Each structure stands twice: as C-alpha cells, then as structure tokens.
Amino acid sequence: MFTLLIAATLGAYTSQRISVVRDGEIVSMSLDHKRVWNDVIAFFAAIGFICGRAISTGRNTRNYFDNAIVPWLNNFGISIALPSITLPSLPASPTLN
Questions:
Q1: pLDDT tens, residue by residue, 61-83
Q2: Which residues contact 28 (CB under 8 A, 6 or more apart)?
Q3: C-beta of residue 18 within 8 angstroms of C-beta of residue 30
Q4: What pTM, to 2 d.p., does this model score?
Q5: Contact 83, 76 (CB under 8 A)
C-alpha cells in the first residue's frame, strides 16, 4: 500500500512538471529539469531538518526524564532506569593506531 501511495505521489508530481504540446501529428513532451532539481534539493533539505528536529527532541526528552522526572520519582520510592543503547565498536588495534 505504501508503494502504491509513493507511486501515486510521484505520478501526480511528474504530471504537474511535464508539458505536452501537440502540433497536428507531432506531439512533443518537455520536462522542466531545473524546477525538478530545485524541488529535490528542497525535499532533502526538509527531510534533514525534520530528522534533526526529531533527534533533538528525543535527546531533550531523555535528558528531561533523566534529570527531572527520575529524581522526583525517587523521592516517592519509585526507581526507574531506562536502558541506554551502546553501539558496538571494534577493538583497538596497535597497527591501526
């Protein structure tokens, strides 16, 4: 279903950017490449902004929970510890250092 939605969105977008000119028996089609590239750059800029905001919001929420809510709950005898993700890393190699 998601693939169908993306295909419909791309089809609607390209139908707005393609112009068809019919001159008797000759049909020509043109695509505004500059506008398409500008839209692609704007799309990726928007995605980068949204992802950055989402990551920042998650970090702020985690910091608020760790620094404000957990100590407050500890005053009532409730102990909560959220797990932290530790990413795997390669062992240090003397030849690479």
A1: 989 998 999 999 999 999 888 77
A2: 20, 21
A3: yes
A4: 0.58
A5: no
Please state, in angstroms and rounded to a whole number, the distance separating the CA atoms of residues 81 and 73.
Answer: 11
Give yes or no for a contact between 28 and 20, defined as CB atoms under 8 angstroms apart. yes
- DSSP per position, 38-95: HHHHHHHHHHHHHHHHHHHHHHHHHHHIIIIIHHHHHHTT------------PPP-TT
Q: What is the DSSP string of 2-25?
A: HHHHHHHHHHHHHHHHEEEEEETT
Calculate helix-pair angle for 2-17, 33-64, nearest 10 degrees.
140
